[in-house]
Write a structure and sequence with these properties.
Shape: elongated
Number of strands: 8
Radius of gyration: 17 Å
CATH architecture: Roll
Number of domains: 1
Largest sheet: 4 strands, mixed
Strand content: 35-45%
CATH class: Alpha Beta
């Protein structure tokens, strides 16, 4: 078996608003959307600089609900950008909520996270140094021992 792609597929209460949020905050572009006569989005695709994010409205009649309907989130989307601070601040200005303020991390990234208005958690980072896995483990162990 050969795997060709892996796509994140988000379900949200308010897919049209989510598309507006993601295009505004991340600069993603909408590839297309399929809309029901009543306005509910059955499927949409956004281009994140060559990576595709799929999303749709909730379909509770099929057991498909967003994170708010489940009382939390079980997935974090990690996005590498040029300037993590700027993206997180833009997300907050657009209605997101900071979970972790951006800071320099032991694994060679400046990163932070926010929750979008639809309940999804985004970790946003940019590289500040190349760190080999052995060094990353050493730093992680040291950090965990000091807590």
């Amino acid at each position: 078996m050969k795997i060709h792609d892996l796509f994140a597929y988000l379900h949200v209460d308010g897919a049209a608003k989510a598309i507006d949020f993601y295009t505004s905050v991340f600069g993603a572009t909408e590839k297309f959307r399929l809309t029901e006569p009543g306005g509910r989005i059955g499927h949409a695709e956004l281009d994140f600089g060559g990576s595709t994010l799929m999303l749709a409205d909730e379909f509770p009649e099929y057991g498909i609900k967003g994170p708010k309907a489940h009382g939390g989130r079980s997935v974090t989307l990690h996005l590498h950008v040029d300037d993590a601070d700027a993206v997180i601040h833009r997300a907050v200005d657009a209605g997101g909520t900071v979970d972790i303020e951006p800071s320099d991390q032991f694994y060679g990234e400046r990163s932070g996270s926010f929750r979008d208005p639809f309940g999804h958690r985004w970790n946003i980072g940019h590289s500040i140094e190349e760190v080999e896995p052995e060094e990353m483990q050493r730093r992680h162990t040291k950090m965990m021992q000091s807590e």
